[in-house]
Amino acid sequence: MATEPLTEQAGLQGPAAWEQEAEREHVHGLGPWRLGLRRLRRNRVAIGFGVLFVLLVLSCLAAPLWAKHVAHTTPTENHLSDTIKLDGKTTNVVGLDGVPIGPTYQGEFFLGADPNGRDIMVRLLYGGRNSLMIGVVAALMTTILSVVLGVIAGYFRGWPDLTIRSLLDIMWSFPVLILGVALGVALALGGLQLGPITIGGDSLLIPIFIIGLVYVPYMARPVRGQVLALREKEFVEAARAQGAGPLRIMFSEVVPNLASTILVFFTLLIANAVLLESALSFLGAGVRPPNPSWGTMIDEGVDRIATAPHLTIVPGLMLVLTVLSLNVFGDGVRDALDPRAKVRLEH
Amino acid sequence: MGRFIVRRVIQMVLVMFAVSVLTFLIFNVIPNSDPAVRMSGRQASESTIEAIREEWGFNDSLPQQYITTMEKVITGDLKSQFTQLSVGKEIVKGLPRTFSLAIGAALLWMFVAICFGLYSAVKAGKFADRFLTIIALIGISMPVFWIGALANYYLGFKLGWFPNGGYVEFTEDPIDWFYHLILPWTVLAILFIGFYSRVLRSNVLDTINEDYVRTARAKGLGERQIMIRHVLRNSMIPIVTLWGLDFGAVLGGGAILTETVFDLQGVGQYTAEAIGQLDVPPVLAVTMFSAFFIVLLNAVVDILYAYLDPRIRLQ
Known about the structure:
The structure holds two protein chains of two kinds. By secondary structure, chain A is mostly helical. Chain A has one domain (about 30-345): MetI-like (MetI-like fold, Orthogonal Bundle). Chain A contains 15 helices and four strands. Chain A has a two-stranded antiparallel sheet with strand order 1-2. In chain A, strands 3-4 form a two-stranded antiparallel ribbon. The two termini of chain A are about 50 Å apart. The relative contact order of chain A is 0.13. By secondary structure, chain B is mostly helical. Chain B has helices spanning about 1-30, 35-40, 45-55, 60-75, 85-120, 125-140, 145-160, 175-210, 210-220, 225-255, 255-260, 265-275, 280-310, 310-315. In chain B, about 80% of the residues lie in helices and about 0% in strands. Chain B is globular, with a radius of gyration of 24 Å. Chain B is built from 14 helices and no strands. Chain B has two domains: about 1-75, no CATH class; about 85-275, MetI-like (MetI-like fold). Chains A and B meet through helix 7, helix 8, strand 3, helix 13 and helix 14 of A and helix 1, helix 6, helix 7, helix 8 and helix 10 of B.
């Protein structure tokens, strides 16, 4: 912009002026991504929540540091008969009546203990690792499956489309939670055997597999719709005229145009996957104890809400903050990239 | 119209068949250990497992197994592996409670979401809109069972404003029935209010720019009349579809978490208890019936639409 008044003052004419004109246009000609980034940067709420999410992830990644250097314990270590000094007084970590101490706001038992005398803060951070890992990997699985299925169905149409669409419709008929629970119960005892790979019933891979699967129809359907519209576009026709095969067209023409949808869905999928993980774990069909996750922690806390409410409140707050930050950020990304897109996920 | 209905009903039956096959596959054929072991729970003796294998015909061919399973489900011969009570009877017993919860919550979330969504759209970009957007996002981001447990404890137990969980039959005492359900309704509705108000907001914003709205304004209608009779009415169509399906999903077991937290003893809580014990038959039945119910509701919605909008019949 600074060059504009200068040009007029200098009164450049002819090719020199055109050149400057061209340069200026070059500066102004931003791609959709740059424009989106610029719009996103202006949305301070979304950026703020995005930063919050990064901080939450980083603190969960730092769980071993906190456990080793601050809390001096591990997520599964019991301290049933230990005592701790509070304001100079010696207090039992777990009282004689079985009630654990609440938040101490000092290194050890920063957020209190659970009935087994385990450090809540340490479990919260380690549980967060599990919850977030499940969320991210499951969302990745959903995204990959949905894009592959959606692109194949939308690009080839005909019988592949019919097959994929019917399959998605059948899955769509089950409420997400019910389908998750059904798979959870079916896989809980025997685990899963896929050819040579055997996954144990209490492995974290089970909830990942379940959550990654149940959201597929919700993403694959919109992707298919977009591909149906994209395949009629001129640039696809041009690529076809140049002799590009279906694979090449799908990967280098169609998929890049889905990028903003994929990005938005991915963010919202993580949020929903974390929520679904907590619900499945709460019902006993997700992460299995003693593995901590925010869902299992809430599950363990709810029974003792009257005597030790911190057991329920703390992991729940952490979960809400995480999911909220992803939802707000994802919303901001969608508004910035494609304000008219309608992306909706269900629980 | 008649042809459309016949076609739609045939399609519905086909989808139901596919749904039952998928459910059967999930519980009986999923590639892992012996289904008989899974069916008999955590600590089962060798003889129990053998009896179950015999009963469910796990040694037969797959189609034969499917028929055996479906016979059990449809004739109500399904029994819980733990209590030995009939699954069908337990589900029927819980239905009025689940229905009470679902209908109240559905009406509540629809009403509040319309208010929020419309107000948010009218004030688009202003503080009120942003505030409501954040509130809606918070609603979407909270696990139902968490907020339910907190509400039940703090509002119900500590402050004593509401009963601490439980359910009273409508026929016994309608006022007490209502009083017991206020908290569960609200908690269950929160999530959907978040979704619906946002969907409605964006629909209203789309509709506002339509030609007929401009026409209405040009002929001098009042702003209130335009918003309610022209904008809201046309923005409601997708919402009503969603509403029908979500209501079906909640009724068909989506209320598992809410019922458990508030101890309503409906179908959802029955399912939750079965899940906790890894009791397969009840979970199988609820899974299949909830999907059946949603497929049925889907067909009803489609037929209603075809009745209202003749263009759909020709597709």
